């Protein structure tokens, strides 16, 4: 029996709603307020993502390279005024800076869709999009959403994302990964081959 309030059906409606939004160049975000979920898409020539770009060229429901969320300040403690925050736009701008810093990516090759949501739906929306698309930067090239750990706290290992896409100054202070960029690229290609076939 169909239950419109089933979590899977609610999540599906969120995924369809974000899919109806027009993609906007990540480097040209308009002014907007709110918290919610977002999807970032890639159209560039980096060889590791060749299969993703090809699959998305004529797709009705293109696969994002990354999915994330942004909650309104205080939402963890019951705050519900998500319209008064710019957290969603701020998070997308942080990602734009990370991409701009990368030596082998161009910001002009990225676009984003987003959907303002009440705090209660944010986690569900993000989880559904990740489950539906298995975005590369959420699944296998971890570290894109990382922040500078702060002064004196750089004992961690450089993430796969920062290893494959060097350029964030703070990541240069981290311990180099044992992974090599070529190996990460091969893993990405195999992941996409299995995921998109």
Jot down its keywords.
38% helix, alpha+beta, 4 strands, 197 residues, 7 helices
Question: Which helices and strands appear, and what pairs or packs with what?
Answer:
Elements: H1 7-19, E1 24-25, E2 36-42, H2 50-56, E3 66-70, H3 87-101, E4 110-116, H4 119-133, H5 136-139, H6 160-164, H7 181-196
Antiparallel strand pairs: 1-4, 2-3, 2-4
Cα separation of the termini = 31 Å
Can you give the helix content as a percent range? 25-40%
Rounded to an integer, what's the Rg over CA atoms?
17 Å
The spatial strand order of the largest sheet comes to 1-4-2-3
Low-pLDDT stretches: none
The residue-averaged pLDDT reads 89
Global outline? globular
Query: What's the total helix number?
Result: 7
Outline the structure in words.
This protein has 7 helices and 4 strands. It is an alpha+beta fold. The protein has a 4-stranded antiparallel β-sheet. Helix 1 (7-19) packs across helix 4 and helix 2 packs parallel to helix 7 (181-196). The chain is globular.
